[in-house]
Amino acid sequence: MSKRVLVLVGTTKGGFIFESDENRKTWGMSDILFKGWNVMHMQMDPRDQRVHAATSHFVYGPTIHHSDDLGNTWMQAKQSPALTRSSNSGRPPSTMDEAFVSEGGESIKEKPEKMIKVWNIKPGRASEPNVLYAGAQPASLFKSTDRGETWTLNESLYDHPQRGEWGPGAGGLTLHTILLDPTNEQRMYIAVSAAGCYRTDDGGVTWAPYNKNVRADFMPDKYPEFGQCVHKMTMHPSTPNVLYQQNHCGVYRSDNFGEDWIDIGEGKLPTPFGFAIGVHPTDPRTIYTVPEESQEYHISVDGQFAVWRSRDAGDSWTRLTTGLPERAHVDVLREAMGLDSFEDAGVYVGTNTGQLFYTRDSGDSWELLADFLPPIQSVEAAVVG
Asked: I need a labelling partner for 4 at 20 to 30 A (CA). Which of 29, 131, 171, 384 fits?
């Protein structure tokens, strides 16, 4: 059976699915999905090919939908992630300020935090059928054991004693990354902007911060135990000890399950700032990132859009521009880079101005896959067949 490639794109006004054969030269495009809804993330579960979508609407609030026919029809989850109580460690000031304004200034100390968005949906390991995870704003982790129909809050993380001191990034207090160690069912990582990386070694019963040597230039203590603004983290399943992160203050690698981190961008990349980071599907030492000009501007460095690639785990970097626009002032958000599973990897990058670029040769050359989309928030790629 021939293989098909799906690129799932979430935007501020709906979702889109692009489809091609394994040559990835000619693409079909779906009609707009969830028209008028904010689609934060779409993800296909490779175990059963169910597609999940994290959506939100100004009337209906945050919800999760799923499709069993690759996006042709959709069903809403019976029970989407929700917060029904306050954290035992206290509300982070940012969520109190947000609720204070939205609820007309009334006291909200005893009210549960207001669920704003689901940012990321993560299929479970092959060894845990029917399990999925979801990261949300305000920072919270949910688990489903029924293929996404219902969701349960991870209470130990929600009640973590440090949570009341977590601060928001510019996009809010968000749990946006979930990484599962494929060799250890008890170990997983989450990343929160702006609280840092946390790890559990007992299946989510307890959590600890893992941020040693990661800078937080905006904090009084530049190397705090927690409070770093992780923008995105990734790992390759063949080397679960190696983690990569694009941070507010640099690009980092850990070679020891997050025990400590090495700055792999300083003096090599044009700026420490950026959002997206990805790892090659068949080469765990090849990684991609999109440096951007400062926390103030969030645009291409010097007006030149470029993806940067390292083939040696960050020891050296190459600027990739062939086929990309020479002049562009765009932003690539944290979820807006996806990779397919071919050896000549397809890397798919979406911009806040609605362009979707891709490569069929692991980054050597680039093409425009789609234009005139709403601002792109997330990009995922999947191979079926």
From this structure: 131
